[in-house]
Amino acid sequence: MTALLPALASTARAAAHRADGTDCHCTGSEAVLADRDDAAVVRHGPTVAKAHAPGTDPTALSLRLATAARLPGTLLAPLHPAAVTVDGRLVTLWPYGTPVDPGAPDVAPWEAAAGLLARLHRAPVPVALPPMRGPAKAARAVRRLIAAGAHPAAGPVLRAWAALPAWVRDEAPMPSARSLCHGDLHLGQLVRHPAPAGPWLLIDIDDLGAGEPAWDLARPAAWYACGLLPPEEWTRFLTAYRGNGGPAVPADGDPWPVLDVPARALTVQTAALAVTKSVATSRPLDEVEQAVVDACVRMSTTAP
Q: Class assignment of domain 105-299?
């Protein structure tokens, strides 16, 4: 992906400056916000250019862009309604938003995230929008684990995966596709726009689609079950989601009959990626990574 960055920066720069060449009042230098196998993101002043994963379906991406544009106040809207092609990659342009501060967990916007999710889940599902890609991403993480080679933690992770229903493993259609879903919800998917202190909005439409809304609650649920998210923060999130009319879980009572399977899937996905990175860098698992692997050990002996 690194070889793409200069062209991506040029695209962001051109978009940030008006056609007559006058200054866009950019502050600071260009910044690389992400450089991963599946995405590269570069900022120039108020404009962000994102290169999507190789092989991204242009029709599906167009539908997802149109959906974001139709939901202001919930999803960050793109600057342009269509992607452009840069060095053979589909690239979309976005306004810059201020991300969540990872160094300030005490002020993490759990209520805002929950309210946005509830609003997203209640929105009409656009005609022809593809399925939410959460299960596909989990299955890809497991394939990467298998390809990485031997590791002591791989066995329990794969056993926990094998115990899950086929739809979670992306081997069958989702039993419920009743809601518009984000597909990859975590706090890194929120920004304030306009920067620096506008309202929170959801970003990243790559996995957006019709699906089971409980999937969008599954990552914080998994973190809570693994002991990585304090109970009070999980309660804040769940209470805010219910208070905003979120349809994924019952309005009261025990949410775990709905959340158990998706939370297990996100735990396996997180563990698979952790083990894959451990193999690639020849380093031991850190404390957080070990916690999700330990959860897979427990899951491999307990049916969903």
A: alpha beta
